[in-house]
Amino acid sequence: MSVIQPELQLDLPLGGSPPDAPGGQFSLQLNDQPLPFRLRRSRSPNLSMVVDEQGLRVSAPRGMTLPQIEQAVREGSRAIAGKQDNKLSLPIRWQDGARFPFLGSEVVLCLSGEHDRIELRDGTLHLPLPPQAVEKQIKDSVQGWLQMQARRVIEAQLEAACARMGMVKPSWRVSFAAGAWGAVDADGSLRLSWRLVHITPEAIGTVVNRFLAQLETSARAPQLWEDDAAPLPA
To answer: Residue 182 — very low, low, confident or very high, per pLDDT cuts 50/70/90?
Structure first.
């Protein structure tokens, strides 16, 4: 991907502040608050917005004008602000006592060799592994459990949302792609990330509603939220 050309910045300036520094740095004024972002041009036909450690990064097709980019950023500003204000983190090391987000709440991991199955009780996930279990074994077990929970929770959100919208529930599958909440495939089916299980049910419902709305209007997902999950380490 290449940084936006300087002459385009001059000919089609964004509303709000001019570039803060070389390299495609911009700032939009949204509800009396500045929203800084980095802008890059890409070969992809879709526009994507990424929230990472440095803030908002926007990748836009080379043929998209700056006013169009500005409008896309404005339309996505509410979701962007939510992601910047509510970043979650996963453990640096998967071990006994590690903490991780599950449906918006913090869960403590406990290695319980005496258990014969994984059990979530009173905010503690009891894992049937001995204290000497290696980190990869612990991580794989926890993520396997999370992925099962994700299927259940996403399915429930899809059924509820489709009932409210009067839609037939589309076919869908769990996505294992890192850093993406989901996508709409060319055949109209959905791919939704198992990592949605880290955020609240209400936030999951918002993501589900967004993709269903794109299906309802027959608009293919433009990957606006390609890296929504970026604040969560893989």
So the answer is: confident
Candidate ranges 11-15, 112-116, 120-124, 219-223; pick with highest mean pLDDT? 120-124
Least confident of 78-82, 87-91, 210-214: 78-82
Q: At what angle do helices 66-75 and 77-85 cross, to 10 degrees?
A: 60
What is the distance between the alpha carbons of residues 20 and 231, in angstroms, rounded to a whole number? Answer: 24
DSSP state letter for 17: B
- CA dihedral defined by 114, 118, 121, 123, rounded to 10 degrees? 110
Contact between residue 80 and residue 56 where contact means Cβ atoms under 8 Å apart? yes
Helix (H) or strand (E) holding 41: strand 33-42
Q: CA–CA separation, 122 vs 162, rounded Å?
A: 32
**63-77 in b/e burial notation, b at 16+ Cβ within 10 A?**
eeebeebbebbeebb
CA distance 146 to 116: 18
- Burial class of 155 by CB neighbour count within 10 A (0 to 12, 13 to 18, 19+): middle
